[in-house]
Amino acid sequence: MHPQGMKHRLGPMLLALAVAACGAGEPASASVGATDAGPDAALPVQAADNAMTPPPATPAGEPLALSDIDAYVAGMRRELELLQAGSDELRQARAGGDDAAEASALLELAMGDTETPGAQAAGVDVARYRAIKSRIDRIVGAVAARQQLRAMRGDPASMTPEQLAAQEQSRAEMLAQVGDPYAGLPADVVAALQARHDELAQLGTRAIGIRMNPGG
Q1: Of 110, 111, 133, 112, which Cα lies nearest the Cα of 121?
Q2: d(CA 69, CA 75)
Q3: Is the pLDDT of residue 4 over 70?
Q4: Cα gap 95→207, rounded to integer Å
Q5: Is 120 exposed, middle or buried (0-12, 13-18, 19+ CB in 10 A)?
Q6: pLDDT for 192-206, tens place per residue?
Q7: H helices of the chain, where?
């Protein structure tokens, strides 16, 4: 593959990764939380008060810790529950031909807040939850970018030695631009992120999928 071709193929992929890193931290459903109201909606007053008590504040810029990975997973699972409920509501409105309900569901998915309940499920304040999400999403995206770059190979039989050398140089430059996803992290956090990479990537991918194709 010609070096320019590599860059052209990489561009959309990096753009998607940027959307993943940024979009995952944006609100996605306004009344999505209301869609889960069922028997649990009539919680005793004390239990409801406890659920609404904000967790202790943690500096948003604090480095990632092992517990933050579990917080990310818990928060993203809660956000996915709410996003899926909103997407189901949209699909039902479309199936019923209810234009008003469809417009309302779309607005709720686009403008609503899933991060606050996500932070509550994660057991951290919203600012810290957003910081955790942003950092982990960037790490997961950078790992995917490096994997994609390493997998890109031209056909040696159809390339001159000069073209092969230029391809490898281009690959090395792009890898350097992506950088080390785990730079500055403690060894135990790096090991946990690597071991749980697929799980973390799937959560982010599912959230992006619902946001980009609501009701699909």
Answers
A1: 133
A2: 10
A3: no
A4: 23
A5: buried
A6: 999 999 999 999 999
A7: 3-23, 32-35, 45-52, 66-95, 99-111, 115-122, 126-151, 161-178, 187-195, 197-212
Instruction: Give mean pLDDT, residues 96-118.
Output: 90
> Where is pLDDT greater, at 38 or 79?
79
What's the token pair of residue 128?
Answer: 């810290």
Q: Which of 84, 208, 76 lies closest to 144, judged by CA?
A: 208
**CA 51 to mean position of chain CA atoms:** 25
φ/ψ (deg, to 5) at 186:
-65, 155
Q: Which residue has the tokens 């080390």?
A: 180
Q: Are 135 and 64 in contact (CB under 8 A)?
A: yes
Question: pTM here?
Answer: 0.68
Q: Is the pLDDT score of 88 beyond 50? A: yes
| Residue 35 near residue 101, CB atoms below 8 Å | no
